[in-house]
């Protein structure tokens, strides 16, 4: 009986660990299905200067988050240099990071600055962020390494 319990426990732990390897990294903003940017194509922000919905036909994974693309070409560009196209701060709100928080984002509240994609919680928050983009980026760059390995729920209690 003890042997059976130990085997069952070992199997459950192994399954839990293997499932965890497929979950998006904690420093990535992805939904329950590990989909990043609500399915929007990160490359399109650069190539089309517009949010463009991707499709499950063209996908790539970065830090265990799944990205959708509107074309094979965009997917291939991302695969070649994912850190160039992936949103900063794991796709969490750039302004929120300055406050030590990891807020979700609206794919429509975006800005490419110095070749990097930044997303915000919503357009109202983005209005505040654009008032001092260089200052907020500097602040967020300093803050991100400290908060990236914590959930927002944990950060909320700090």
TrEMBL record:
Q: Which NCBIfam families match?
A: YHS_seleno_dom
Pfam families in UniProt: YHS (PF04945)
Q: Which UniProt keywords apply?
A: Signal
**ATP-binding listed as a keyword:** no
The answer, when asked if Signal is one of the entry's keywords, is: yes
Species the sequence originates in: Methylophaga marina
* Region forming the signal peptide: 1-23
Residues covered by the YHS domain? 44-89
In Swiss-Prot or TrEMBL terms, this protein is called YHS domain-containing (Seleno)protein
């Amino acid at each position: 009986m003890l042997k059976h319990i130990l085997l069952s426990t070992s199997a459950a732990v192994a399954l839990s660990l293997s499932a965890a390897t497929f979950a998006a990294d904690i420093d990535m903003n992805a939904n329950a299905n590990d989909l990043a940017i609500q399915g929007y194509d990160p490359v399109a922000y650069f190539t089309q200067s517009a949010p463009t919905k991707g499709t499950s036909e063209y996908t790539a994974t970065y830090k265990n988050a799944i990205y959708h693309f509107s074309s094979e070409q965009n997917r291939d560009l991302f695969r070649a240099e994912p850190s160039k196209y992936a949103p900063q701060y794991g796709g969490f709100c750039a302004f929120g990071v300055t406050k030590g928080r990891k807020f979700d984002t609206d794919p429509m509240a975006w800005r490419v600055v110095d070749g990097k994609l930044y997303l915000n919680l919503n357009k109202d928050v983005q209005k505040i962020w654009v008032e001092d983009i260089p200052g907020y980026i500097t602040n967020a760059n300093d803050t991100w390494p400290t908060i990236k390995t914590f959930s927002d729920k944990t950060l909320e209690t700090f």
